[in-house]
Amino acid sequence: FSAVSIVTRLTTPILCERLGVRTVMTVFYILQGATVLLLIFSSMDGMFLIFAVSFGVGYGGETGGFPILNRKYFGHAPMGGAHGFQMLGAGAGMALGGWIGGPVFDIFDSYNPAFAISVVASFAGAVSIILLENPAKLLIPDWQKSEEKFEQNLKITT
Questions:
Q1: Distance CA 32, CA 20 (A)
Q2: pTM higher than 0.70, yes or no?
């Protein structure tokens, strides 16, 4: 899973530039969600290996698209804050995703509801990407002027 994720993280930027960042990220989110369904049949070793490789592709691909998406929307504006919030959300989701299986199993005596939550969350991510505005138009075209004005306002208030 980790090796596949690493390879995907390296190839995702290339795919995003060639095929479009929203398209690639949507495919990776769908792949990440759909492969979780394989866990229902993972009592077979081979099926679990197929899951691990397929999930690694989606998991690694999702992460590599965020900086490109930011550049498409914000041009050459500083993107540290936007990317930081994206990674905060992704990290929280990954942390909760790993934890939530325990309480869900305790309640339902099965992991299948946890798998369903994972699938729904991944598909919701895909829908969110689809619903984003067209990145051909910069969201903050005059970011330098906005930043200068913000800095001037800071000097006035301090």
A1: 18
A2: yes
Exposed, middle or buried, 155 (CB in 10 Å: 0-12/13-18/19+)? exposed
Q: What is the mean pLDDT of residues 45-73?
A: 85
Residue 122 makes CB contacts below 8 A (sequence gap 6+) with: 29, 30, 32, 33, 34, 36, 58
Angle subtended by helix axes 112-131 and 21-36, to nearest 10: 170
- 3-state SS, residue 140: coil
Residues in Cβ contact with 45 at an 8 Å cutoff, skipping those fewer than 6 apart = none
* Reported confidence tier of residue 1, pLDDT bands at 50, 70, 90: low
Domain containing 99: what range? 2-157
Q: How many domains does the chain have?
A: 1
